[in-house]
C-alpha cells in the first residue's frame, strides 16, 4: 500500500459534490470573482453555468478570497446540517472578503440568510442565473476584452478536466416527506434531448473521458415533455432516459447514471450496460426497506419486489454495481423496522452504500410526524448499519483480487496514481491505487489493472 494514501472513509456525505478545482489566472486589471460551491453535484453544475457566463463577460475566476472582487456562495438547504454549513461558509466569505453574493437552494429563504448575515450584497434562489449576474455586475463591473476573453469551448468546469457532471433535468415531482427539494427547485423540467447531447459531445471533444449524468430524478427524464423527439445526427432522439443513455454511450466516454429512481423502465437500461454502451453502475436512492417506513416517507413500499428487480438486473448484467443511500432513525422507526433494513441489506448485498441519520429540515412534512427517534438511538443504528455495509463491501473487494479491471486515473503524485474502476464514482465511492509502475500515467488515462490487494472500500493493483 502506498504510504500516505488515504483509504476512502465509510461515512462520506452522499449529498456532497467534489471540491471545486480552479486553476486559471487573471490578467492585470481584470475583475475577479470567487466561488464557493456547496451541496450536491447538481449545485456544482449550477456553479459552472454561472462561472461560464461570467467568464464570457470578461471576469476571471479567483481561487482564493484575497484576490476576489466579490465572492459567490452557492448554498445547500437539503438538511439542517447543510444549512448550518452554508451559513458558516457565508460567514467565512464575509470575514475573508466582505463582498458576498448568496445563491442556491438556501437562497430561496432570503430572510433566513439575512437574519444571520445582514451585510451580504444579494440573495438569489436556485437557478436564478440572471439575478446572480446582475449582482456581480453591481459589485464588480465587467471589463471584457473581446480579443482575450474568448470562452473555452467547454465553458468553465470546477471538476478535473477528465470528468464532468451533465445535468439533464431540474426539479422533482415526488413528495417525499423528508425532502424540501421540490419546494426549492420546483417540479420536473427536462432539458431537450438534443441540447443535452450537444453539450455532452462538446465535453467529449474537449477531452472529458467520463460523463456523470445527474438530476433530481434521472429516470423520470422527459416525462414532463411527454418524451418528445428532437433531431439528432440525421435522425431523431426521444427525451427518455433509455434513448438518451444510448446516445450518450455512443460518444465514446464512460457514461455513469446517478439518482435513478427504481421505475419499471429502468430495466431497459440494463442491456445498454451489458453491451458496454453505459457503465454497469446504478445509483438508486432506496432510503429504506420496511414498507411502513417507506409509507411514512411517502415513497413506494415494495422492497420485496425491489429485491426481485435487483436479482433480474444482476442476471442480465452480472458485473453491475449498485449504489444507494438510506436514512436511519426516521420518525417512528422501530427496532424491528430497523432490523428489517439490516436483513434486507444482507440479502440485497449492495456494492456501495451511503447512510444519513434523519434530521428535521425546515418546511419538511416529516417534522410533524410522531415518535421521533432519540439522537443516541439514531447514532447506534447508523453505526450498526455502516458495520453491516462495511462487511459486505469488504467481501466484494476481496473477491476482486486477482481479476483485471479497467480504471480511470484521477491523480498522480510522487507516491503513486489514484484511480477509479467502473464501480466507483468520484468522491463518494472507493479508489484503486497504483503504487508501482505508475510513471507516465496522467489524469484521464484509462488502462487495465490487475487487482493485487483489497481493503474494506479500496483496491490496489498494477498495470498490465
Automatic annotation (TrEMBL):
Q: Which cofactors does this gene product need?
A: [4Fe-4S] cluster
The free-text cofactor remark is:
Binds 2 [4Fe-4S] clusters. One cluster is coordinated with 3 cysteines and an exchangeable S-adenosyl-L-methionine.
Q: What is its EC number?
A: 2.8.4.4
The record's keywords, sorted A to Z, are: 4Fe-4S, Cytoplasm, Iron, Iron-sulfur, Metal-binding, Ribonucleoprotein, Ribosomal protein, S-adenosyl-L-methionine, Transferase
Q: Where in the cell is it found?
A: Cytoplasm
Q: Which residues bind [4Fe-4S] cluster 1?
A: 40, 76, 105
Q: What would be an example GO MF term here?
A: aspartic acid methylthiotransferase activity
Segments traversing the membrane: none
Provide the Radical SAM core domain boundaries.
158-396
The main location is cytoplasm
Top enzyme class, one word, equals transferase
State the protein's name: Ribosomal protein uS12 methylthiotransferase RimO
Provide the species name. Answer: Amaricoccus solimangrovi
